[in-house]
Design goal:
Blueprint (H helix, E strand, L loop, with lengths): L2 H38 L6 H11 L5 H20 L4 H21 L1 H4 E3 L2 E2 L1 H7 L1 H13 L10 H9 L2 E4 L2 E4 L5
Antiparallel strand pairs: 1-2, 3-4
Helix pairs in contact: 1-3, 1-7, 3-4, 4-7
């Protein structure tokens, strides 16, 4: 590869690396806060599916009560992804949320599957959550381990095991110096 092309490639990759985390945080915020707001105001196209799921899986819960709590929960996930230092909280809230949002694939197959491995529009809406999982986990993978002031040896061990991703591949940070 010519040096000029490689230099351009390196510059583009560096710019993308600088932009990736803020874009991921912003995208997760927009999706969760926006969709939560739609649910809160009864404007979400997912509300009928949620109502059907509640009737089938949790008939003891009132839709009006559940949808308010679910909407606020989604909005909090969005806010926590946007707020620096709260990514761990957002990821912890995301896991049960995505488990609940996947339930229609099991409990409402007539609404989510048109055939074997052929999702309906609602099913596609749910399956796309795999992208959200990948994005959230990618963001979480960039976090620094929680360090303990009481245990400098443990913090040093964590730093020793950190890795660097470069154009040459993945290597322990110690080899990059």
């Amino acid at each position: 590869m010519p040096r000029a092309v490689r230099n351009i490639d390196v510059r583009i990759i560096k710019a993308l690396r600088r932009a990736a985390l803020p874009l991921a945080r912003g995208a997760l915020f927009i999706v969760y806060f926006w969709f939560g707001t739609l649910k809160l105001f009864g404007a979400s196209p997912a509300n009928p599916l949620i109502g059907e799921l509640l009737d089938r899986a949790m008939p003891f819960l009132s839709f009006d009560t559940f949808i308010i709590g679910f909407a606020i929960y989604e909005m909090l996930i969005g806010v926590f992804f946007l707020a620096p230092g709260f990514e761990r909280v957002a990821t912890a809230l995301l896991v049960p949320h995505l488990c609940v949002t996947a339930l229609p694939l099991v409990f409402l197959p007539s609404l989510t599957w048109a055939g074997l491995f052929v999702p309906t529009l609602e099913g596609q809406y749910i399956v796309k959550n795999l992208v959200i999982i990948a994005l959230a986990f990618g963001l979480a993978a960039q976090l620094r381990p929680v360090s303990s002031k009481k245990s400098p040896r443990a913090a040093a061990k964590l730093r020793k095991n950190e890795v660097s991703v470069s154009l040459r591949g993945i290597r322990p940070l110690a080899q990059n110096k």
